[in-house]
Amino acid sequence: MKVVAYNIKDFEKELLAVANGKVHDLTLISNPLNLNTIHYADGKEAVIISEDDTLDSKTLRALKEHGVSKIITRSLTTDHIDLYEAQYLSMQIANTPYPDRTPKGIAEQTVRNLNLWSAGKCVGTACCCLDGCSKVEQEKVGGENV
C-alpha cells in the first residue's frame, strides 16, 4: 500500500520504518497535513496523521481527490477528523486504541492497521467509521475480534 505519514517527529521515523519492515511504500514527512502540503498524498491510498492535523470537510475532499481512501490517526481520539464527511466520502478511518501508548507501540499499531487493510480485513477496535461496518461485526462473530 502506498502511504504518506504527516507530522512525523524525528523519534518516530525509525520506529515506523522498523514496524513497517519494508511492507508498505511509506513516505515519512515532518510537515503537518493541510491544503499546502496535501500534494504529498497524491497517488497514495492512505495517510497517517497525528492529533495535531485537522481534517475538516475541505481537507477530506481534497484528500479524496488525490486518491486517498484510508486515514489512520496516531491518536486515541478522532475529534480532529470530520467523521461525517469521511463517511459521506466512503473513507475508512482508524485510530490507535490499544493499551501500548509508547511511540513504539503506536508505530506498531499503525502498521498493523495498514496490514489489515491490505489484506482486505477490518481493523476491528481501531475502526472509527460511522457506517456500522459489517466487517467489524463479522470479525466479532467469527471470534477473531482484532
Description:
- This is D-lactate dehydrogenase.
- GO terms for molecular function: D-lactate dehydrogenase (NAD+) activity; NAD binding.
- InterPro entries: D-isomer_2_OHA_DH_cat_dom, D-LDH-like.
- This protein is of the alpha/beta class.
- The chain is built from five helices and five strands, in the order βαββαβαβαα.
- A five-stranded parallel beta sheet has the order 2-1-3-4-5.
- α1 packs across α4 (103-118).
- The longest helix has 16 residues, at 103-118.
- The protein is globular and about 35 Å long.
- The model is unreliable at 136-146 (pLDDT under 50).
Question: Helix and strand layout, with pairings?
Answer:
Layout: E1 2-5, H1 10-20, E2 25-28, E3 46-49, H2 57-65, E4 70-73, H3 83-88, E5 92-94, H4 103-118, H5 134-141
Parallel strand pairs: 1-2, 1-3, 3-4, 4-5
Keywords:
146 residues; disordered C terminus; Rossmann fold; 5-stranded parallel β-sheet; alpha/beta
Write a short abstract of this structure.
By secondary structure, the protein is an alpha/beta fold. The protein is 34% helix and 13% strand. Strands 2-1-3-4-5 form a five-stranded parallel sheet.
Rg on CA atoms, Å = 14 Å
Q: Tell how many strands the DSSP assignment holds.
A: 5
The unreliable regions are: 136-146
Q: What number is the mean pLDDT?
A: 91
Number of helices: 5
Helix content: 25-40%
Number of domains: 1
Quaternary structure: single chain
Main sheet: strand order:
2-1-3-4-5
Please write the string of helix (H) and strand (E) elements.
EHEEHEHEHH
Q: Considering the protein shown, what is the CATH homologous superfamily?
A: NAD(P)-binding Rossmann-like Domain
By CATH, the topology is Rossmann fold
CATH level 1 class label: Alpha Beta
Percent strand equals 5-15%
Approximate shape: globular
Largest sheet geometry:
5 strands, parallel
Derived structural class: alpha/beta
Keywords: NAD
Protein name: D-lactate dehydrogenase
InterPro entries: D-isomer_2_OHA_DH_cat_dom, D-LDH-like
GO molecular function: D-lactate dehydrogenase (NAD+) activity; NAD binding
